[in-house]
Inverse folding.
């Protein structure tokens, strides 16, 4: 009878030990899966942020420069025309007398 109780106790101990080890393995796998998911999610978020920046950048440059390239020539022409008389005045003042 004592042998049967010892054998039964040994059987229960092995069962609990295998159950514990199985749960620990499962917990370890779940932890690794969550870490991989977080890493992938972080990479995806960075990719989306980069794509957003690429989309927003041209519209920001357009709003910062209201004269698109076809009109930039005219803007430069107006700027140089406005600066011309001022340059002439400076040249006259610097001319030897």
């Amino acid at each position: 009878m004592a042998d049967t109780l010892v054998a039964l106790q040994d059987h229960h101990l092995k069962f609990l030990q295998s159950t514990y080890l199985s749960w620990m393995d499962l917990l370890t796998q779940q932890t690794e899966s969550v870490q991989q998911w977080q890493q992938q999610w972080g990479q995806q978020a960075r990719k989306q942020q980069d794509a957003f920046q690429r989309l927003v950048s041209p519209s920001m440059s357009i709003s910062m420069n209201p004269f698109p390239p076809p009109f930039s020539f005219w803007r430069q022409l107006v700027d140089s025309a406005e600066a011309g008389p001022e340059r002439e005045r400076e040249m006259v003042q610097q001319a030897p007398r």
Q: What stands out?
A: The mean pLDDT is 82.
